[in-house]
Write a structure and sequence with these properties.
356 residues, alpha/beta, TIM Barrel, four-stranded parallel beta sheet, 50% helix, 14% strand, globular, binds zinc ion
C-alpha cells in the first residue's frame, strides 16, 4: 500500500515525534525582535520576516561554524527569566501546531548565564515555561509531551556541570543529555568523565556525531562514550559500500541505535547535498532506526511538517515511511517504555490509520 498524494493539511495533522530540536534554534522571529528590544540587543533587522530570512541566509553558508554563529542573536534574548519562559512556552505551542505529540527539546544551560541566572535556575525556568506551554496545548485540544535533554558545549569546560544537572533534574522533566557545538577538533571522548558519570547514574544520552566529522566521531560516541543515540550520524554511510555494512554501521543498525537525522539542517551545513540524495532514505531502506528531525526550526526555516513534505515530494516517501520514522522516534525516546508504548499505540498508530 502506498500513498500517491498526501495533501499539506493531512501532513500537518499526522502525529509526529521529534527527538532532535534545539530550544535556542527555534524561536519565533517576532519574539526575538520583541525580546531584543526589552534587553537592548541590536539585531541585523527588526522586521520579523527580514530577520527570518537573515537567519536562513546566514545558516545557508554550508559551514557548521558559521551556522552556529547565528545563535549569537537568539542567545542574546535568552539571558533572563522573561526570555526563557516565553521561548519555552512558545516552543511547546509551535510543536503542537505542527502536529507533534512528543518532543525532546535540547539546549545548553551554560549559554544562558550571561545575566543573573545560574545554570540550575535556567533549567528550572525552562521547565516552568514548558509546563505552561503543555497546559495551554492540552487545553486547546492539541496535547504534546515535551521533555528535555540538557547539553554541554563540547568546546568549553562546563560539560560536567551540565551532566550533573541532567542527573539532578531527572525527575523534573529532564530525560537525557547531549554534547553540542563544533565537532571538528572536539571529539566526544574529551568528555568521557561526564559520560561515565551519566552511565553510573543510568541517565541516557545522545551525542552529536558524524555530521562535520566522520566515522571516528560516531565510533567514539558509541563505543568509547556509550551513547544510546547519535545526533545526525549521516556519515555512517561511509561505512556502507554497495549496500554492505562495515562493523560500525552494522553495530548501529543491529543494536537499533537511533540516528537523529535532520535533512534541511544537513543541507545548510554541507553534510548532505540534496533532499533526494540525503542518506536518510537509503538508511531507512537498509533497516536502520532512522528518525526525522528539525534541528533548528528558525535557522533552517523549517517545521516537522515541512521536513515530511520535502521527503514526500523529493525523495518519494509514503505515509507508511513517515509512520515508520515516527514510531522509530518513540521507540528510541528517552522516556520510560510504558509511556513510549502508550504514545505509539494510542496516538501515533490511530493517527496514521485515519490518514491512510
Ligand atoms: Zn543539533
Amino acid at each position: 500500500m502506498s500513498s500517491t498524494r498526501i495533501d499539506a493539511d493531512t501532513l500537518r495533522r499526522l502525529p509526529k515525534a521529534v527527538l532532535h530540536d534545539h530550544l535556542d534554534g527555534g524561536l519565533r522571529p517576532a519574539t526575538v525582535v520583541e525580546l531584543a528590544e526589552t534587553v537592548g540587543h541590536t539585531l541585523p533587522t527588526t522586521d520579523p520576516d527580514e530577520l527570518a530570512a537573515w537567519y536562513f541566509d546566514a545558516a545557508n553558508s554550508g559551514d557548521l561554524v558559521r551556522y552556529i554563529a547565528t545563535f549569537e542573536h537568539t542567545l542574546a534574548v535568552l539571558q533572563n527569566r522573561e526570555g526563557l519562559l516565553r521561548a519555552a512556552e512558545e516552543y511547546v505551542l509551535d510543536l503542537a501546531a505542527d502536529g507533534v505529540v512528543y518532543g525532546e527539546v535540547r539546549y545548553a544551560p551554560e549559554l544562558n548565564t550571561n545575566g543573573d541566572l545560574t545554570m540550575s535556575e535556567v533549567v528550572e525556568t525552562v521547565q516552568e515555561g514548558l509546563a505552561a506551554g503543555m497546559a495551554k496545548a492540552a487545553a486547546a485540544g492539541t496535547p504534546v509531551q515535551v521533555r528535555t535533554l540538557l547539553c554541554g558545549m563540547r568546546m568549553f569546560d562546563r560539560v560536567g556541570e551540565a551532566a550533573d544537572l541532567a542527573v539532578a533534574f531527572r525527575d523534573a522533566g529532564v530525560v537525557g543529555f547531549d554534547i553540542a557545538g563544533a565537532e571538528d577538533g572536539f571529539p566526544p571522548a574529551d568528555h568521557l568523565a561526564a559520560f561515565e558519570h551519566l552511565r553510573r547514574e543510568s541517565v541516557p544520552f545522545t551525542i552529536h556525531a558524524g555530521e562535520a566529522h566522520g566515522l571516528p566521531s560516531i565510533h567514539q560516541a558509541l563505543q568509547v562514550c556509550g551513547a544510546q543515540r547519535i545526533g545526525h550520524g549521516v556519515r555512517i554511510t561511509e561505512d556502507i559500500v554497495d549496500g554492505k555494512l562495515g562493523r560500525l554501521a552494522g553495530w548501529v543498525r543491529d543494536r537499533r541505535i537511533a540516528l537523529e537525522m535532520c535533512p534541511t539542517s544537513n543541507l545548510q551545513t554541507g553534510a548532505a547535498t540534496s533532499i533526494a540524495g540525503h542518506p536518510i532514505t537509503a538508511l531507512k531502506d537498509l533497516g536502520f532506526r532512522v528518525t526525522l528531525n528539525t534541528d533548528n526550526r528558525l535557522v533552517s526555516g523549517t517545521t516537522m511538517t515541512r521536513e515530511m513534505s520535502l521527503l514526500v515530494e523529493e525523495a518519494g516517501w509514503t505515509v507508511e515511511d513517515l509512520r515508520t520514522v515516527t514510531v522509530n522516534a518513540l521507540k528510541s525516546a528517552f522516556i520510560p517504555y510504558d509511556e513510549r508504548k502508550a504514545l505509539i499505540e494510542d496516538v501515533v498508530l490511530p493517527g496514521y490509520a485515519s490518514a491512510l
